[in-house]
Amino acid sequence: MMSVQDVEDVYIIGFLITGFLLFVVCGYLAYREIGKTSAAVLAIARLPGLCEGICRAINTQTEMLREQNGKLVVILQDCRLAVVPGLRGGINLGEVVCLDLAKDQ
Q1: Transmembrane stretches, by residue range (predicted)?
Q2: Whole-angstrom Cα distance, residue 104 to residue 83?
């Protein structure tokens, strides 16, 4: 049979083990949360580079559109637009014919 003092010792050892396990679990959870926070901070630190890359891509696309627009202006200046008879409500690109001026002369 166990004495009261032996039972108290068992309880003390049990509480020590439980406290140690709680301490370890809390430490692990804090470590995991710090890892998530550091990943978020690193992502924020990368934002200027990402913004610069996006701006560079948009500028490249804008320049390409300007070049294409310039080519279209040259083509339209070299051609005469003739609208197909029977067209109503504006110019429909599917019904616009570009005639070469050199062939007309």
Answers
A1: 12-31
A2: 16
Q: Where are the alpha helices (DSSP H) in the chain?
A: 4-78, 101-104
pTM for the predicted model, two decimal places: 0.38
pLDDT band at 12 (very low <50, low <70, confident <90, very high): very high
Q: Where are the domains of the chain?
A: 4-104
Tokens (6 digits) for 46: 């990368």
Burial code (b: 16+ CB inside 10 Å, e: under 16) for 54-88 equals eeeeeeeeeeeeeeeeeeeeeeeeeeeeeeeeeee
Residues 6+ apart with CB under 8 A from 95: 83, 84, 87
Read off φ and ψ for residue 79, nearest 5 degrees.
-115, 160
